[in-house]
């Protein structure tokens, strides 16, 4: 059954800790509840803005939301063993890291590098979350959704979801058109560790664990430790994790930067393109640990923007734009927000 609230505070629904209100807030427990809500909304007020949110770990509100905010409470993890692997159907409101923990515990492998990413399962399919050499698209097979214009249920094969680095068709071309209700994954019953990213090998070595001895539990524990060491806890200091996407640039741009900065880190994309860490670019511009009003760049991870206390969404956005301008001026590279900015554009 759907629950409707009016003039609803969104403070607890965004990890930046921004005070904002929604004209209406609707929480629903099932696909049928959502369908009924959408059909009623479109019949009674067809032009009202609708925003669907999950855990709020990738949102920046610039103002109150003058419309309807929808929030899912659809849970559940269904498992089926097949010859090609372990198939999971997971409710959109399941906490992402709870899913990772569940899979590691039950011997379902493929999510270990994505441990401790905040948010819910539905957002994983929208954002194509990723970390330490892995992305959600690597294991997603299909996405179930409800149209926010007609209330119809649809199933999208992963090949139709337009997945790319931190992108999907739900985030780009179909932004605001669908609410994800369930995500389908294919995992493996065989553990094949991915250790070649983000200092994982070094962290395992520091614990005396050799690559051939590592378990899924070891890998998950190390990834969590690395993330905790680098990223602030949103419960202590408001943030949305990595604020910017790592830019993918033509190889000649990378070579030009390497001429001035021989130590520039990079990741090969293909023969023509290279990915450069946005955090490195931001740090070289002198922003790491710096503040602009009530917003700041985190002092341990320059990818992260933080709320120093009572910051507004526009305070965070002003810092974002200042950082982007300096990176563009110094390196000729435009870095883009990974965070969804609600109420304006960057």
Automatic annotation (TrEMBL):
* Cofactor(s) the protein requires to work: FAD
Q: Name one GO molecular function term.
A: UDP-N-acetylmuramate dehydrogenase activity
Tell me the active site: 166, 242, 338
Q: Which reaction does it catalyse?
A: UDP-N-acetyl-alpha-D-muramate + NADP(+) = UDP-N-acetyl-3-O-(1-carboxyvinyl)-alpha-D-glucosamine + NADPH + H(+)
Subcellular location, principal: cytoplasm
GO CC entries: cytosol
Biological pathway: Cell wall biogenesis; peptidoglycan biosynthesis
UniProt EC number: 1.3.1.98
Subcellular location(s) per record: Cytoplasm
Name the protein family.
Belongs to the MurB family.
Q: What is this protein called?
A: UDP-N-acetylenolpyruvoylglucosamine reductase
Q: What organism does this protein naturally occur in? A: Paraprevotella clara YIT 11840
The gene name on file is: murB
